[in-house]
Amino acid sequence: MTRKYTESEIRDIIADNLQCIEPGMVLIDTEHYLPNYKGTKGFADILAKDCKDHLTVIEVKKSNSTAREAIHEVFKYLEGVKINKGLRDDEIRLLILSTEWDELLIPFSSLCQNSTVNIEGYRIQVSENRTLSSVKRVQPIMHNHERLFCEHHMLRAYTTEQKLQQAIQEHITSFETKGIYDYVLVILKAPKNHREKELAAMEMPYVGYSQEDRAYMSTHNHEHYPDYKFIIYSASQLQSEDIYWDILKKDADIYSNVSEFFTEDSDEEDYLSDLHDYAINSVAPVPSCDTEDIGYAAKLQNYIYNQNWTVEKIIRGKIFNNEFLSDETILDELCGARGGTRQKYLLEFDSENITALKKMKREVSYCLQDNKQWKVPVTTILDTLIDECDKKSFKGKIYIYNPMHTLYTLYLIAAHNNIMNWAPCFFIVVEYPDQTDVYFGEMKHTGNIQDFDIVIEKYFGKTLWDLAFSLTWGGYLPNDVQIAKDLGLGYGVYKTSNIYGKSTHYEYLDYEFTECDEISSMKALTEYFTQNISVINRIVDLFEKDMPAKGYTFI
């Protein structure tokens, strides 16, 4: 029988085994009293010093019931340490050690994102001989707000109303049987002539297939391809690692197979999302469907706004079933409006809420993490607004569209003859009592276009499958700024300041705004199209003639 230790016993075992947490860590004290004449006082479980002489506060929890208290305790001890020791935030570390993380993961993740102190979490197991048998680093969920939809969604299609209604109940049963009540189902109805458009898209030639094979596939598709009339697009909040493993354990075969891929030391970026896919979409009960595919924000946007599928209704699990959460908000978040996909961000702000502004800066930094040509000036702008909160009154709005797929962007602009709807851009409008500042960003022609074929082969290979596959996950390419550079494009940032009707214009150059002539919106990108017609034609041919079919089709 496994011995059950008390929380104080676990604390003492950790204090005796600090080397298991981190080599070079030295114990200072246990149950260290932190007096505070300002009122924040208490006892820190463990006080230690790491190998770089940083003071390290360790908070110990052993169960879900006590884990919920940990975040409050950490805040209290942090203030006590800063006051009693006279230390800055960068001279302090906070470690949270717990045997259970179900109730702790989300508040821990929020704390990590909202604190300037180095905070780490560890899942521990204590052996019967009073040693730490397992110490595993817990990675915070890097989320943009407290409502944490997993970025991996599910999309299932149906050919009849009867199948749809049966599947709606099956989706509800599937989630709730697994103990998941924070889910949403978006019911979509196909536009008129949807099947004909899908079949037309399938006529696009496939690399590696002969003309005879393509003719056979075309005939086969017209005879057998289903007429999908409805989609159930499902998503749920990201759960803790323990919850997913508990679900997986209900199916011994799936649990065994998944365990082979993930070990206790797994730290892949998509670890939790991958566990989510296995637990929610593989373990019975699983909803029936005529066909299915992985969903993601860009795909949902494509169905609603490009292919014109109609949102019939949104069905919510009981956690989301309240009057304070609108269907519009849910749909916006599933489409990535709060930066989770790094392609889109939208929010209003004002000087009365500095905490929201700081959070907005973190979210924008995440959204623009791979586009430093915009990230540096935009975060600088937001820093200025944060500094102005106690000096000026203002309100504003920020919008970012950052698709990070230059080739596909140029194709969409050319194919639709519409630069405004598809070009990357951002704007930040700040309204003061006596003036309005508008910051905006757009692509600009930088010259020096490299040989087109060399660029394509350099980033996507000769077969173009890598380019085709890039569109299946939403089109986001982390190295796209370099691709844009090779195609003679960069990301410009500008500002217009209007004071009592008089406007002054600026361009962001060498890390500061320099006064310039008035900037015409999208003029630089428009000139790129007129001056590089041969490149644009090659891009159109690339997507419409050369590349494996990516187009309108569901499958």
UniProtKB/TrEMBL annotation:
<dbReference type="InterPro" id="IPR011856">
    <property type="entry name" value="tRNA_endonuc-like_dom_sf"/>
</dbReference>
<keyword id="KW-0378">Hydrolase</keyword>
<dbReference type="GO" id="GO:0004519">
    <property type="term" value="F:endonuclease activity"/>
</dbReference>
<feature type="domain" description="Endonuclease NucS C-terminal">
    <location>
        <begin position="7"/>
        <end position="87"/>
    </location>
</feature>
<dbReference type="InterPro" id="IPR048301">
    <property type="entry name" value="NucS_C"/>
</dbReference>
<keyword id="KW-0540">Nuclease</keyword>
<keyword id="KW-0255">Endonuclease</keyword>
<dbReference type="Pfam" id="PF01939">
    <property type="entry name" value="NucS_C"/>
</dbReference>
<protein>
    <submittedName>
        <fullName>Endonuclease NucS domain-containing protein</fullName>
    </submittedName>
</protein>
